[in-house]
């Protein structure tokens, strides 16, 4: 009998390391995620008959104190992370630009930032309504818009673009996006739940197994994800 295992992927849509984790690929298209590539390799192996993996996304807020009102992303990041040091901020930009270049990401550091709760609300709603393939497209669009096109991470315009990129009609997405209360309590509870589970950084990816769960934190190479998948299969027998 095939064992069904869940991969819990905890993220925030303004985390550059999570974007790197989804975009890096050593051997294949730069538009594939590492985890997706590891799953593709696994599903092509003989072991795939023993375990079925499904990916489910969970919300986390790196900066829960951020307001809904947009503010300068550059100034906010410099102040909140680097003590308002211009020198440290320039070092960060150089570092992330270098990492991004290896993954096909053209990081930009302008635009605005705001609280990401509405983005998480949209992700969770359409994950339940449309499934993992659709929600993955929403997440990819949100990362692209924020990190490469300098868009506000939670504005109605950004969220509508993300749902449109995922193939969801505006007539279906817009009413949900504009109703700020719809699903908000549920997503707030999920954020608290993730914090209660000890998650304090993203990306955090939990591979659930029969004998034990295996947690990977941060952007890993595809081979490490693949190794973890095979370990879960080995321990499920």
From TrEMBL:
Protein name: DSBA-like thioredoxin domain-containing protein
Organism expressing this protein natively: Cladophialophora chaetospira
Pfam families in alphabetical order: DSBA
GO MF entries: oxidoreductase activity
InterPro entries named in the record: DSBA-like_thioredoxin_dom (IPR001853), Thioredoxin-like_sf (IPR036249)
Superkingdom of origin organism: Eukaryota
PANTHER family from the UniProt entry: DSBA-LIKE THIOREDOXIN DOMAIN-CONTAINING PROTEIN (PTHR13887:SF52), GLUTATHIONE S-TRANSFERASE KAPPA (PTHR13887)
Domain DSBA-like thioredoxin: residue ranges: 7-229
